Amino acid sequence: MNHYIVGYHDAFLIYGEIVREMILEGKNIYDGREFTKRTWNRTYTGLISGNFKINDNGDGEKDFSIHDFDSEGNLHVSIVWSHLLMIITDRSSKRNKYMYKISPREY
Q1: Is pLDDT of 88 > 80?
Q2: What angle do CA 12, 18, 21 make, to 5 degrees?
Q3: Mean pLDDT over each residue of the chain, to the nearest integer
Q4: Residues sharing a CB contact under 8 Å with residue 103, sequence separation 6 or more, in sequence order
Q5: Does residue 82 have a pLDDT over 80?
Q6: Residue 53 near residue 44 (C-beta atoms within 8 A)
Q7: Burial class (CB in 10 A: 0-12, 13-18, 19+), 63
Q8: Which of 22, 14, 67, 13 is nearest to 42 (CA)?
Q9: pLDDT tens digits, one per residue of 30-54
Q10: d(CA 86, CA 43)
Q11: In the chain, what's the furthest Cα-to-Cα distance?
């Protein structure tokens, strides 16, 4: 799936949600300050790319994961960051080279 298309799709859903809110409340949808204020400090769910939060500074926060190959060439999820829980989970069965800053040669 193309990440740019997913981004545009999700942005359009967020835009539509805010415009709908403003119309239902009788607000001017062309008021950029009001629109921006409404997008900040909230979490958007049900997007193709997963949950997305815009914090009170206007910065986007997203979940992400790091995948790694084992010695047989199989791909595994190694680390998961959850922006909602604000934690990093080590899903590796052995000491994680990313969590402990070990170079691949030492692993």
Answers
A1: no
A2: 140
A3: 78
A4: 97
A5: no
A6: yes
A7: middle
A8: 14
A9: 999 999 999 999 988 777 777 788 8
A10: 14
A11: 62
